[in-house]
Amino acid sequence: MIYFPTKYNEIIGRIEAADARKYEKTRNFINGAVTYLSPFIARGVIQLPQIKQIVVPKFGRYVSEKLIQELAWREFFQRVWQHKGSAIFSDLKQDQENVKHRQIPTKIVSANTGIEAIDKAISQLYQTGYMHNHARMYTAMLTCNIAKSHWHMPAKWMYYHLLDGDLASNMLSWQWVAGSFSSKKYYANQDNINKYAGTQQHGSYLDCPYEAFPFAEIPVDLKPTEDIHLTTPLPEKKTPVIDPSLPTLIYNSYNLDPNWHNEINANRILLLEPDHFEKFPISEKVIHFILNVAKDNILDIQVFTGAFKELETLAGNNKIIFKEHPIANHYKGIQEERAWLFPAVNQYFGSFFSYWKKCERYYQEK
Ligand SMILES: Cc1cc2nc3c(=O)[nH]c(=O)nc-3n(C[C@H](O)[C@H](O)[C@H](O)COP(=O)(O)OP(=O)(O)OC[C@H]3O[C@@H](n4cnc5c(N)ncnc54)[C@H](O)[C@@H]3O)c2cc1C
Questions:
Q1: Is the pLDDT of residue 236 over 70?
Q2: For a surface tag, which of 61, 90, 229, 298 has the fewest beta carbons within 10 Å of its beta carbon?
């Protein structure tokens, strides 16, 4: 069973255990040597340069390149979010084609699509809060390109359950699969799924050559659809105790960095804004993960469920410090830069390929 620790030393141990050589060869297989680092990266517990600093000296630049390139995918999506803002929550480059509805197939939600590998991956998502990248792609392609759902509601459903839920990686990956942030829709047939998921399923509605895509008809199993209504069980609102002689550091669900200014005395507040979670709900499992990571690693952290404005009032003349992030655009105070793998590559790129071409130059430099 996949397990995600919440203690910082175990999380660092997970970076140290990453095997760049095996990763390069097996990452596409559901049981491949992937790192399982995404919840810690997405929540800002560890920073991408930290991973690079551990992996590259151990395996060398050449062997590490695939893993670094995958880390760069995350950074690419973050840059798109920074530059395009809330436009990433709608069809970004072009409208998704061949959409029949804006709901989600009932059999995706109930993990009963008839495609064994996908059903297993969805059940595992519910149990663990994690899904392998290839399984995410299969699930999104079945939903958007076979069942012809618009990507937005299904993306919110998956985001709700993921410990690593990251709005940019999530929404833009769904759009990449559905063809609104890529040049074509992604398809996988049963052979491809069997190969990477280790199943031996035959005779399913995906057991066809690639020429059969796109299907003229939605398979009967995927026809029933539903709306989903998701809510976030936020902790009760409690007024934090703020020492007026100290600065106030604001943490949030994307910044849980235990090393951030850990050398100073400060009021440390984990800010959970109800408005944000109303728009982008997360499950109880995910909220517990966030709270546990915060409590296990950030000294005297207090949780405040409320709006930034209320916290600002509570802080009075107190200095407020936060890290730059699109969900913190409305914070006021001292904004600090996030740690980037490729800080100099700070523009909008419409494709990962063009982004990576720029990054590669910096990666090759010492
Ligand atoms: C439909 C869909 C939804 C997704 N939603 C999210 C999400 O909400 N949050 C999220 O962090 N990732 C998301 N991803 C990207 C990717 O699936 C996960 O980052 C990866 O599976 C996490 O597992 P890992 O840490 O073991 O990955 P590894 O393969 O070990 O990769 C190491 C790290 O590189 C980054 N990375 C790897 N692949 C990708 C990728 N394709 N896109 C972006 N970053 C990548 C991640 O930070 C990951 O932790 C999504 C992908 C798809 C296709």
A1: yes
A2: 229
DSSP string, 177-197: HHTSSSSS-----HHHHHHHH
User: Which ligand 1 atom lies nearest to the CA of residue 140?
Assistant: 1
| Sheet with 267-272: strands ordered across | 302-305, 267-272, 248-251, 320-323, 334-336
Cα 122 from Cα 231, distance rounded (Å): 19
Cis preceding-peptide flag for 343 (omega within 30 of 0): no
Token pair in block for residue 67: 């893993």
pTM value is 0.98
- Closest ligand 1 atom to Cα of 27: 29
As a CATH number, domain 104-226 is 1.10.579.10
Report how far ligand 1's centroid is from the alpha carbon of 362 (Å): 22
For residue 316, name the pLDDT band (cuts at 50, 70, 90): confident
For 163-199, how does the pLDDT look when each residue is reduced to its tens digit (9 = 90+)? Answer: 999 999 999 999 999 999 999 999 999 999 999 999 9
If you measure from the C-alpha of residue 38 to the centroid of ligand 1, how many angstroms do you get, rounded to a whole number?
A: 6
CATH 1.10.579.10 location in the chain: 104-226
The CATH class given to the 248-332 domain equals: alpha beta
